[in-house]
C-alpha cells in the first residue's frame, strides 16, 4: 500500500557503493519499519532526477552538484539525508608524466565523467583558472566511458576515479600505486557532497510521505552502519543482489571497505557546513558557474531529525 | 549444408587474422605488466614504449608474445580466451545461475520476442494502412524514415522514464525499444510485398467483384509472404539489438547488454566479449529459425520451387 | 478539454491531407512534400498543446517551442557537434565501410564458394550489437572520431555487402550469355553488365546504411568522446536535464539523416533512371 | 482438300448453335470513346466504337499492337470506364454485370496465383462468390475434366507446362456460371501445335455451352478459325476498321484452314489489318 | 494468286545467292548428344543430332516446346557443351569460333541493357571487341540504317515499342562482322503484321550480306517463308525428325505464302511436327 511503499533510484549499477540500502533490505531493517522497499539499479543512461520527476521513484541518490543544478532547472529536489560524509572523487594520473601538482595539468588530457557528474571538475578547474578547452594553457577534456582504459592505454594522462571503485580497477590491471599520483577533491578543497538522498519538494507537504521517509532513512542508516561494521557480509549481500553475475567478491569487499571510510563520519543528517562548502564551490565556477545563485530550501533536516531521535 | 565448408573456411581465415592481431594489440599492456614482473623489456620505460607501434614492440620483445595470448585484461582477447569464457558461462553453469549466459540470454530474449511481436504487428498494420490509404501512404511513410534517423539510445531513457511514470517497468519498456527498431524493416518489406501483385492478378479479382478484404486475404497477403519473411529476418535481429541497447537505461541489471557494460566497467573484457558473441549467436539462431519457417511455409505455399 | 482540442487539430490536419491526397494535384511535387509536412506540423501542434495543457515537466518532455528556441540560440554549438559526429565520424565510416563492403562483394562474387562463406559470417558480424562493439573500438582507436568511424564502418558493411552481392547476381542468363557470345572476359562483363545491373541493389544498401551510419556515430559517443559531438551533447545535456538541447540535437540528427537519405535517393534516381521502379 | 460445302454437310446439329447465335444481343457498345491521361499527354485508346455482340457469338478482335483490343475487352468487363459513349451488357452497365458475375475473364498470360494449387486457383472465384464446399469440389472436378486436367488439381502452377497452365486459367474462368467469356490473347505464348490443340478444345467447349465469347488474338488464322465474327481494329486512335461475319460452318476441323474460303477470309482480314497498320511498326 | 513459276520469273538475280548457298559447309554436327543433370534426374535434351549447314544458308529450326531448338543453337554458339559427339564451326570448335567473333546471336527477347541507349547497346560488342571510336560510330550508324532505326540511337530501350527493340537487338548482332547469325525466336512476341514486315527485312538483309543464318521459330509459315532449309525437331529426347530443303525461289514476296507450293511445304512441316508432338501438350 501507498503508505509503506518506497522506490529508491540508484545512480549506478548494483555495487557496494550502495551497500547500506541492500543491507537494510536484506537484513529486514526496512521490513521492521513496515516498509516495502524497491531498489532500482541505475546505469549509464539513467538520470535519477528525471526518474524522480517522472514519478518512477520516491527517492533518489544523487551527487549534490547535479541535484542543485536540477533544482535550478526547475525540478525542486530536496536533500533529506546525507549518508556520505566525505567525497570519494579524485583524479588519478601517471606519475611518469611528470604531473605533481594542479599547475601541471596544463596541456594534458584528462578523462572526466559527464552526465551531470562533470560539475565538480569544472568548478575546480575554473577556481584554478585553467581552461577546459584544450590548448597549451588549458586541459583537454575527454568524456570518459565506463572503464579505466583511457589511462591504461595512455590516451589520457589523468582520469576520474572513485577511491572505492575505478582506482581499484587501475590497481587490478596490475598497476602499482607508486606508478600513480592522485588528486582527491577532498584534499584540494573542492569536495562536493556525493550520494545524498533526495525527494521532490512537493511530497514533503504530505505527512504520510514524510513519515514513510523518516522510517526509510532510519532503516537505511541502520543498514549503512551495519555495512561499515561488517564489510565482508555487506559485500556478499551486494553480490547476492547483483543480477549480472559479473561482480567479484574481492572487488566488492575492497569497495565496501573504502566506502566505509566515506560514510563513517555521517549519521545521516546533512552537515550544513559541508552543504555550504559545496554551494560555494559550485558558485565559484567563474564565467560558467554550475549554479548561478544561492539555492533555497534545497535541504531539510526534518526527516533526519525525526528519524534519528 | 553446402555452405558448411565455405563458412568454415572463411571463419578459419578470420581466426587466423585474429590470432595474428593479438600480439600487437596487447603488447603495450603486456610489456608494462612484464616489467612489473621483473622481466626484460625493451625499451624499458612505458613512455618510451609509447613511441613504438604494437607490432614493432612485439618484434623487439618476441619472448613476450606468448603472454599476449593469455593476458587477463587484454585489449583484444585471443579466440581461445573468448571460447573458454563462453564455455564456462554457457555450458559450465546451471542455466538458472546469474553467471550463466543462458540465463542472461533468456533475460534478453523475452523482451526481444515481445518487442518483435509488437513491432511486427505494428509494421504490418502500418503497411496495410499505407497500401490501402493514399493519405497514410503520402504522410506516414516519410516520417517512418525520419523515425529511423533518430538515435534510439538517446530516446530510450526518455521512453523508459515516461513508461516508468505510468508504472510500467520490467519487460515492457525494453520491448518498446525493440519494437521501435523492428517495425521499420517490416513496414518497408510489407509495403513492397502487399504491392507486389501485378495488375493482372488484381484485375482478376475485380472481374469476380471481390471485396477489399477478400482481395487482401486471397491475393495481397499470400503474395507478400516472401517479402514478409525477408523483413522478419531483419526485424528480429534489429529487435535483439534494440533490447540490448535498452538494457542500459532500464538499469543495467541482467541480460547481454548488462553483461557487456559491467564486464567493461569492472575490467573483465572477456565477460563483454562473451556476451557480445553470445548475442550475435542468438541473433544468428533466430534468423536461422525464421529461415527454416520460411522454407517450410513457402514450400507449402508452392513458392519455393527454385 | 485539452484532449478535445488535440483531437480537433489532429482531425483538421488529417482532413486537409485527405483532401490533398485525393485531389487531382496529388502527384504534384509540392503536394508530395506538403502532405508529410502537414502531418508533421499536426504532430508538433498536438505535442505543444498537450505539453502546455497538461503542464508536463520540461525535464520529461519539453515543448516544441522551447526546442525551437534552442535550435536558434545554439546554432554554433550544434554545428560543431554536427561537424564532429556526422562529417568526421559518420561520413568517414560510411565511405570506408561502403568501399570495404563493395570490395568484398566483388571478391565474393568471383566464386560461389566465397559467397557462401562470406555472407553468413557477414550476417553474424551485422548482429553484433553496437552497445558491445562501441566500447571496444573506443578502447582500440581512442575517444575521437576515428573510433566512431570504425563503428559506423562495421554497421554499414553488411547491408551494403548483401545488397551488392545480390545485385551482382541479378543479371539474367540471357544478359550473361550475350556477353559470352562476344567472347567477353571477367572485367568487361563486370564493368559493362554486372555493375550497372547491380546499381539499384547497391543503392538500396546505401540508403539503408545512411540511417545506420548516423545512429552508429551518435551512439558510439556515449562510450567515450571528446567534449564535442552530437552523442556527447545528447548524453551530457540529458544528464543535466537540458532536455530541450537533447531534442534540438535529435532534430538535427533527424534532419541530417533525412537529408542524407534524400541525397542518396536523388543520386539513385540519376544513376538508375533506367530501372522500372524509377520510371 | 475438303470444301466448305463438304464440311457443312458433315455438320450434324447446326440448328442448336445457329439458334443460340441468332439470339438477342448481349453486348451493345455505342460511340464508345476512351482517353487515357498520361504524363506524356492524353492517349486516345478508343474512338467511336460501335459494336453489337449477340448471345452465343464467338467474336475475335484483331489488330496491331496498341489499337485498343485489350482496352475494349476491359471496357466490356467494367475494368475500364469509357470517357464517352454507352456500353451495356444484358441491359445493365458493365459494373452491374460484373456484380452479377457475368464475366469469366482469361488474361493474356495464365496468371495463376503461384501459392495456390491448380485446384486452389480454380476454387478462388468460387470462394469469393461464396459457393459451399461441396459445390466447389464438384465444380472444380467438372472444369478440370473439361480442360483435360484431371489429376492435376494438387499440383502447383510451376509444375505444369505453359499450355497446361493456360488450360487451368481457362478452367478457372469456366468454374462459375459466367455467360460471357472474355479472353485476351490466351494462347499468345504457346507454340503452334499446342495452340491448334487448344483452339479445337475451345471450339468444342463453345459448342457444348451457350457462352458468348470475346477473344483477342494476333494470329489471323486463329481468328478466322474460331470466330463467327471478326472485328478488325486499327490504332491511333483505336477504332474498328472492319467487321467480318464468317461464312464458315460452325463445326470446323483443323483442315478447314487450308480451304479456299478460309484463305479468302484470312485475306480480307490481312488487308484490313495492313490498311490500319502504319509503317512505324 | 501468283504461282511459284511466276514468282521465280520475277527473280532478277538468282545467281549470286545460289552460289553462296552452294559453298562449303560452315557448321557440322555429328552424333551430338546433350544431357542436363537436374535435381529431378537427367534430361536428354539432344540425341544423335547430325546436321550440315552450308555457307550462306538460311536454316530454320521448328519443333514443339522443349525439343532442344534453343539447346542446339547454344551448342553451335559454344554456350552449351555437348556431352557427346562433335560439332565444328569453320573447322574450329564453337569456343574458338566464339573467340574469333564468329557469331551474332539474337535472343528470343530483345535483351537490350536498359541502362544503355539504343546506340550504346549496339556499341557494346564494339567496345568489347576493341573497335576504335570512329569505327564504332560509323558502324552504329550503318546498322541503325539497316534496321530502319536512324534517329533513335539516343533513346533508351523502354522508349521504343517491342518491335523496334527487337530490331535494335538485331542491329546489335549485325554491328560487328559475324559470319554466322543465330536467332532464337526473335519475333516470338510480335504481332503478325510487324512480324511480316521484319521477315521481309530479314530476307533483304540476308540477300545483301553473305551471312549464314540459324533461325528458331514456332511459326510454320515463318519457317517456310524464310528458309532454304527447315529442320523439324521432336522432343524427349530432342532429335531431328525431318530436314526439308525448300524449293521456293530465293526472292519471296509475302504473297508467296498463298501459293500451293508454299502450302505444300507447310503441310509437310506440320505433319512432321504433329508426328513429333506427343499429346501431353
Ligand atoms: N492504363 C493505361 N494508361 C495509359 N495508357 C494506356 C493504358 N492502358 C492502355 N493504354 C494505351 O492505350 C492504347 C491501347 O492499349 P491496349 O492495351 O488496349 O492495346 P492492345 O490492342 O491490347 O495492344 P496489344 O496487342 O499490344 O496488347 C495503347 O496506346 C496503350 O499504350
Ligand atoms: N540449363 C538447363 N538445365 C536443365 N534442363 C534444361 C536446361 N536448358 C534446357 N533444358 C531442358 O532441355 C530440353 C530442351 O530445352 P530447349 O530450351 O532447348 O527447348 P526448346 O526447343 O528451345 O523449347 P522452347 O520452344 O520452349 O524454347 C527441355 O526439356 C528443357 O527443360
Ligand atoms: C553516464 C554516467 N557517467 C558517469 C556517472 C558517474 N558516476 C556516479 S557514481 C559512479 C560509480 C562509480 O563507481 C559513477 C561512474 C554516471 N552515474 N553516469
Ligand atoms: Mg492487349
Ligand atoms: Mg527455346
UniProtKB/TrEMBL annotation, chain B:
One of its GO terms (cellular component) is plasma membrane. PROSITE patterns: ABC_TM1 (PS50928). It is a multi-pass membrane protein. It is found in: Cell membrane. The chain crosses the membrane at residues 106-131, 143-165, 171-191, 227-250, 270-293. Keywords: Cell membrane, Membrane, Transmembrane, Transmembrane helix, Transport. Residues 101-294 form the ABC transmembrane type-1 domain. InterPro entries: MetI-like, MetI-like_sf. Coiled coil: none annotated. Its main location: membrane. GO terms for biological process: transmembrane transport. Pfam families: BPD_transp_1 (PF00528). The keyword Membrane applies. Belongs to the binding-protein-dependent transport system permease family. This is NitT/TauT family transport system permease protein. It comes from Yoonia ponticola.
TrEMBL record, chain C:
It is found in: Cell membrane. It comes from the Bacteria. Its main location: membrane. Residues 94-272 form the ABC transmembrane type-1 domain. It is a multi-pass membrane protein. GO terms for biological process: transmembrane transport. It holds the Pfam family BPD_transp_1. GO terms for cellular component: plasma membrane. PANTHER family: ABC TRANSPORTER PERMEASE PROTEIN MJ0413-RELATED, ALKANE SULFONATE ABC TRANSPORTER-RELATED, MEMBRANE SUBUNIT. This is NitT/TauT family transport system permease protein. The lineage of its organism: Bacteria, Pseudomonadati, Pseudomonadota, Alphaproteobacteria, Rhodobacterales.
UniProtKB/TrEMBL annotation, chains D, E:
GO terms for molecular function: ATP binding; ATP hydrolysis activity. It comes from the Bacteria. The keyword Nucleotide-binding applies. InterPro entries: AAA+_ATPase, ABC_transporter-like_ATP-bd, ABC_transporter-like_CS, ABC_transporter_ATP-bind, P-loop_NTPase. Keywords: ATP-binding, Nucleotide-binding, Transport. SUPFAM superfamilies: P-loop containing nucleoside triphosphate hydrolases (SSF52540). It holds the Pfam family ABC_tran. Residues 29-256 form the ABC transporter domain. Belongs to the ABC transporter superfamily. This is NitT/TauT family transport system ATP-binding protein. It comes from Yoonia ponticola.
Amino acid at each position: 500500500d501507498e503508505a509503506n511503499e518506497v522506490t529508491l533510484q540508484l545512480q549506478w549499477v548494483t555495487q557496494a557503493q550502495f551497500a547500506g540500502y541492500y543491507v537494510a533490505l536484506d537484513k529486514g531493517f526496512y521490513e521492521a519499519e513496515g516498509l516495502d522497499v524497491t531498489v532500482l539499479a541505475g546505469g549509464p543512461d539513467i538520470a535519477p532526477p528525471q526518474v524522480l520527476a517522472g514519478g518512477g521513484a520516491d527517492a533518489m541518490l544523487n551527487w549534490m552538484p547535479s541535484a542543485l543544478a536540477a533544482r535550478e532547472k526547475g525540478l525542486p529536489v530536496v536533500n533529506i539525508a546525507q549518508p556520505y560524509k566525505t567525497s570519494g572523487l579524485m583524479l588519478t594520473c601517471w606519475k611518469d608524466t611528470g604531473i605533481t601538482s594542479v599547475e601541471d595539468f596544463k596541456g594534458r588530457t584528462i578523462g572526466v565523467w559527464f552526465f551531470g557528474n562533470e560539475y565538480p571538475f569544472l568548478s575546480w578547474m575554473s577556481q584554478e583558472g585553467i581552461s577546459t578547452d584544450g590548448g597549451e594553457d588549458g586541459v583537454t577534456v575527454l568524456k570518459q566511458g565506463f572503464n579505466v582504459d583511457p589511462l591504461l592505454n595512455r590516451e589520457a594522462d589523468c582520469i576520474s576515479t572513485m577511491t572505492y571503485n575505478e582506482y581499484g580497477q587501475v590497481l587490478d590491471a596490475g598497476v602499482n600505486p607508486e606508478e600513480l599520483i592522485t588528486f582527491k577533491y577532498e584534499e584540494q578543497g573542492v569536495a562536493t557532497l556525493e550520494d545524498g538522498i533526495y525527494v521532490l519538494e512537493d511530497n514533503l507537504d504530505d505527512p504520510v510521505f514524510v513519515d514513510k521517509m523518516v522510517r526509510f532513512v532510519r532503516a537505511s542508516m541502520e543498514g549503512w552502519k551495519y555495512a561499515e561494521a561488517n564489510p565482508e557480509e555487506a559485500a556478499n549481500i551486494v553480490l547476492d543482489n547483483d543480477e549480472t553475475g559479473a561482480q567479484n567478491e574481492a572487488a566488492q569487499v575492497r569497495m565496501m571497505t573504502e566506502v566505509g571510510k566515506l560514510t563513517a563520519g555521517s549519521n545521516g543528517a546533512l552537515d550544513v557546513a559541508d552543504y555550504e562548502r559545496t554551494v560555494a564551490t559550485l558558485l565559484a565556477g567563474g564565467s560558467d558557474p554550475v549554479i548561478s545563485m544561492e539555492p533555497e530550501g534545497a535541504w531539510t533536516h526534518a526527516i533526519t531529525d525525526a528519524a534519528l531521535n | 549444408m553446402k555452405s558448411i565448408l565455405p563458412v568454415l573456411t572463411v571463419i578459419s581465415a578470420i581466426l587466423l587474422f585474429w590470432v595474428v592481431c593479438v600480439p600487437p594489440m596487447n603488447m603495450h599492456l603486456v610489456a608494462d605488466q612484464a616489467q612489473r614482473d621483473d622481466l626484460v623489456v625493451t625499451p624499458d620505460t612505458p613512455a618510451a614504449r609509447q613511441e613504438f607501434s604494437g607490432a614493432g614492440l612485439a618484434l623487439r620483445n618476441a619472448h613476450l608474445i606468448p603472454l599476449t595470448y593469455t593476458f587477463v585484461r587484454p585489449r583484444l582477447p585471443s579466440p581461445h580466451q573468448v571460447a573458454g569464457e563462453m564455455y564456462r558461462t554457457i555450458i559450465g553453469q546451471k542455466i538458472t545461475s546469474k553467471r550463466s549466459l543462458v540465463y542472461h540470454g533468456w533475460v534478453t530474449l523475452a523482451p526481444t520476442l515481445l518487442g518483435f511481436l509488437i513491432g511486427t504487428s505494428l509494421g504490418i498494420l502500418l503497411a496495410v494502412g499505407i497500401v490501402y490509404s493514399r493519405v497514410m501512404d503520402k504522410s506516414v511513410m516519410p516520417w517512418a524514415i525520419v523515425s529511423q534517423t533518430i538515435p534510439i539510445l538517446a530516446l530510450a531513457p526518455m521512453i523508459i522514464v515516461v513508461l516508468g511514470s505510468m508504472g510500467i517497468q520490467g519487460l515492457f519498456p525494453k520491448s518498446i525499444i525493440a519494437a521501435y527498431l523492428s517495425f521499420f524493416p517490416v513496414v518497408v518489406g510489407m509495403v513492397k510485398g502487399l504491392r507486389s501483385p501485378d495488375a493482372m492478378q488484381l484485375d482478376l479479382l475485380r472481374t469476380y467483384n471481390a471485396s477489399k478484404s477478400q482481395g487482401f486475404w486471397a491475393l495481397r497477403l499470400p503474395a507478400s509472404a516472401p517479402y514478409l519473411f525477408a523483413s522478419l529476418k531483419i526485424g528480429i535481429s534489429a529487435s535483439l539489438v534494440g533490447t540490448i541497447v535498452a538494457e542500459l537505461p532500464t538499469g543495467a541489471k541482467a541480460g547481454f547488454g548488462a553483461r557487456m557494460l559491467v564486464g567493461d566497467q569492472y575490467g573483465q573484457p572477456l565477460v563483454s566479449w562473451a556476451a557480445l558473441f553470445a548475442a550475435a549467436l542468438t541473433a544468428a539462431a533466430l534468423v536461422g529459425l525464421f529461415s527454416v519457417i520460411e522454407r517450410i511455409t513457402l514450400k507449402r505455399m508452392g513458392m519455393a520451387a527454385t | 478539454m485539452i484532449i478535445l482540442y488535440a483531437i480537433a487539430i489532429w482531425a483538421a490536419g488529417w482532413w486537409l491531407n485527405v483532401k490533398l491526397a485525393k485531389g487531382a494535384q496529388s502527384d504534384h511535387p509540392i503536394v508530395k512534400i506538403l502532405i508529410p509536412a502537414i502531418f508533421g506540423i499536426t504532430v508538433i501542434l498536438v505535442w505543444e498543446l498537450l505539453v502546455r495543457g497538461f503542464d508536463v515537466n520540461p525535464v520529461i518532455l519539453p515543448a516544441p517551442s522551447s526546442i525551437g528556441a534552442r535550435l536558434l540560440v545554439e546554432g554554433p554549438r550544434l554545428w560543431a557537434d554536427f561537424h564532429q559526429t556526422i562529417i568526421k565520424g559518420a561520413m568517414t565510416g560510411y565511405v570506408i565501410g561502403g568501399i570495404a563492403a563493395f570490395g568484398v562483394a566483388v571478391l565474393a562474387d568471383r566464386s560461389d564458394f566465397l559467397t557462401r562463406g562470406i555472407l553468413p559470417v557477414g550476417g553474424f558480424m551485422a548482429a553484433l550489437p553496437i552497445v558491445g562493439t562501441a566500447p571496444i573500438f573506443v578502447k582500440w582507436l581512442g575517444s575521437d572520431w576515428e573510433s566512431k568511424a570504425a563503428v559506423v564502418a562495421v554497421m554499414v558493411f553488411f547491408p551494403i555487402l548483401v545488397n551488392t552481392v545480390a545485385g551482382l547476381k541479378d543479371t539474367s542468363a540471357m544478359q550473361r550469355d550475350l556477353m559470352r557470345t562476344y567472347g567477353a572476359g571477367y572485367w568487361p562483363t563486370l564493368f559493362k553488365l554486372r555493375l550497372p545491373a547491380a546499381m539499384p541493389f547497391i543503392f538500396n544498401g546505401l540508403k539503408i546504411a545512411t540511417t545506420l551510419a548516423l545512429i552508429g556515430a551518435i551512439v558510439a559517443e556515449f562510450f567515450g568522446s571528446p567534449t564535442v559531438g552530437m552523442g556527447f551533447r545528447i548524453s551530457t545535456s540529458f544528464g543535466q536535464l537540458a532536455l530541450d538541447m537533447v531534442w534540438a540535437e535529435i532534430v538535427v540528427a533527424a534532419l541530417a539523416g533525412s537529408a542524407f537519405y534524400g541525397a542518396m535517393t536523388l543520386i539513385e534516381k540519376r544513376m538508375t533512371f533506367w530501372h522500372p521502379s524509377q520510371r | 482438300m475438303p470444301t466448305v460445302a463438304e464440311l457443312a454437310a458433315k455438320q450434324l446439329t447446326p440448328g442448336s448453335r445457329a439458334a443460340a447465335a441468332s439470339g438477342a444481343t448481349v453486348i451493345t457498345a455505342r460511340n464508345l470513346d476512351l482517353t487515357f491521361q498520361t504524363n506524356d499527354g492524353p492517349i486516345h485508346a478508343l474512338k467511336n466504337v460501335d459494336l453489337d455482340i449477340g448471345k452465343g457469338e464467338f467474336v475475335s478482335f484483331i489488330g496491331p499492337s496498341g489499337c485498343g483490343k485489350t482496352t475494349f475487352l476491359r471496357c466490356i468487363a467494367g475494368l475500364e470506364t469509357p470517357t464517352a459513349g454507352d456500353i451495356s451488357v444484358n441491359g445493365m452497365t458493365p459494373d452491374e454485370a460484373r456484380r452479377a458475375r457475368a464475366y469469366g475473364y482469361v488474361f493474356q498470360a495464365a496468371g495463376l496465383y503461384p501459392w495456390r494449387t491448380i485446384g486452389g486457383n480454380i476454387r478462388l472465384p468460387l470462394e469469393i462468390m461464396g459457393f459451399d464446399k461441396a459445390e466447389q469440389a464438384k465444380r472444380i472436378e467438372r472444369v478440370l475434366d473439361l480442360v483435360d486436367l484431371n489429376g492435376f488439381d494438387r499440383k502447383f502452377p510451376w509444375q505444369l507446362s505453359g499450355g497446361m497452365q493456360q488450360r487451368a486459367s481457362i478452367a478457372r474462368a469456366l468454374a462459375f456460371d459466367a455467360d460471357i467469356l472474355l479472353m485476351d490473347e490466351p494462347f499468345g505464348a504457346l507454340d503452334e501445335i499446342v495452340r491448334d490443340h487448344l483452339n479445337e478444345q475451345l471450339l468444342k467447349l463453345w459448342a457444348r455451352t451457350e457462352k458468348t465469347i470475346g477473344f483477342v488474338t494476333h494470329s489471323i488464322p486463329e481468328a478466322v478459325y474460331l470466330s463467327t465474327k471478326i472485328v478488325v481494329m486499327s490504332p491511333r486512335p483505336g477504332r474498328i476498321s472492319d467487321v467480318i461475319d464468317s461464312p464458315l460452318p460452325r463445326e470446323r476441323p483443323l483442315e478447314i484452314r487450308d480451304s479456299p474460303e478460309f484463305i479468302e477470309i484470312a485475306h480480307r482480314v490481312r488487308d484490313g489489318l495492313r490498311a490500319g497498320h502504319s509503317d512505324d511498326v
